[in-house]
Amino acid sequence: MCWSWRILKQVVQFSGLSALVLIISCTSATYEYQFDDVDTERTPSREANIRNGIAELDAYIVRQISRRVTPGAAVSIVYDDEVLYQKAYNQSVHRPYAVLSFTKTFTALAVLQLAEAGKLRLEDRADQLLGATLEADRYRDRPITVRHLLTHTSGIPDSGPLKKLNLYPAPYIPEQNHPAGDRFQYSNPGYRLLGMIVEKRSGQSIQSYITENLVRPLEMSNTRFSVRSNGASGMVSSVADLANYVELYINRGRFRDRQIISEKHFYELFTTPTKKASCPYAEHRGIAWRVQTYEDRVLLMNHAALGLGVGGMIQIYPEHKIGFVFLSNPPTYNDHRYLSFYKELRDRLNGFAANVGEMDFRAGTGTPCALHTVPW
C-alpha cells in the first residue's frame, strides 16, 4: 500500500538549525529524510561536555561491573571521525564477540550495494529473485518485496508453523501470518532470505560478499563469520572494529577515502513501507535499523545484539556525527538487572549526545509514537 506524497520543501527547526526535508512520491510509502550540515567545531564548551560526559559514562559502567551486572564490557565512542573513547572492562577492546543481529545491518548494506549496482531493486518481488513462493495462499495478492524483508514487514514471523521452500537445499520458513507491508514484525527468517538473495544476485556466499565489500574496505581486521552464519546472524567482531563501522554511518556511506555506499542509497536506510507517523517524536523500523525522528529529522539509529552471553548495541546520531558501540557478556541478557542497566545506558548515551551535539531535544525524554519495533 502506498501513500503518495507530493514533492515539497519543508524547513524545520531543531537544535537551533534549519533542515531541508525532501518528501518524494513513492511506490511503497517510502519517506526520504535528508540531513542538515551540523556544526561539529570543538568549542571549549563542547570539549567540556565531552570530558564530563565520558567521565560520567565510565563511572556508571564501572559501578555496574562492580555490582556484577555483567562480568565485562567494552565501549567505543566516535565523534566526527575521531574515536573519543575506547575502553574495555575486564577484557580487551579487540575481544571478538558474536555480534548476533548486528549481522543484519551488514546484510542490509550488501543488498543496498547490489541495488546501487543495478543487480536488484528494492521493490523487486522476493519470490521472483529466489525462485520460490514465500506468501501464504491467502496473501498472494500482496507480494513480498525486498524492501519488506529489509524492514521486517514481510509478514513472515520469527517462529511458527513451518513451510518448505522449493529450493535446493530446501530451507524452511515460518508461514506468513499477515499481508506484506501491513505492519512491523521482527523476522530473523526474513534476513536469512535476504542472505540467499545476496548470494543469488552476487554469485558469492553471503560471508564472502560481506567480507570483500564491507569488512575489508572498512579495515575491520578482527571481524569474521562463524560456521553457522547467515544473513540474520553469525558475525564475530569487536568494539574496536565496529568503531570503523560507525564512521561509515556518520559520513553518510563513506569511510575515509572510500565511498562504501552512495549517499542516495544511504538515505534509503531510513525509509519504511509502513505509514509515516504524524506525531513530532516518532519511532519506526527503517531498513534494518530502528529509527527515531523528531520534527521529521533523524535523531538516532539503533540496533541491538541480545542473546545468550551477549548484550550489545550500536547507537548512532548520524546528523550530529556521534556514534557508540557497546558490547558485554552477561550470562543472560533478559535478567531484569541487566536489562535495567542496558536501558539506562541507552538513555545516558542520549544525554551525552544531546550535550555534545548541543541538541534542543533529547531522545528518551518521552515515549515516541508509532512504535514499529521490538520493546527493548
Q: Which overall shape is indicated by the principal axes computed on the Cα atoms?
A: globular
What's the helix-strand series?
EEHEEEHHHEEHHEEHEEHEEEEEH
Please give the count of helices: 9
As residue ranges, the low-confidence spans are: 1-29
**Biggest sheet, strands in spatial order?**
4-3-16-15-14-13-12
Amount of helix: 25-40%
What is the radius of gyration computed over CA atoms, rounded to a whole number of angstroms? 20 Å
Please report the distance between the alpha carbons of the first and last residues: 28 Å
Strand content: 15-25%
Q: What can be said about the biggest beta sheet?
A: 7 strands, antiparallel
Mean pLDDT over the residues: 88
The count of DSSP E runs of length 2 or more, i.e. the number of strands, is: 16
Integer count of domains: 2
Structural class: alpha+beta
Structure summary:
The protein is an alpha+beta fold and 376 residues long. It is built from nine helices and 16 strands.
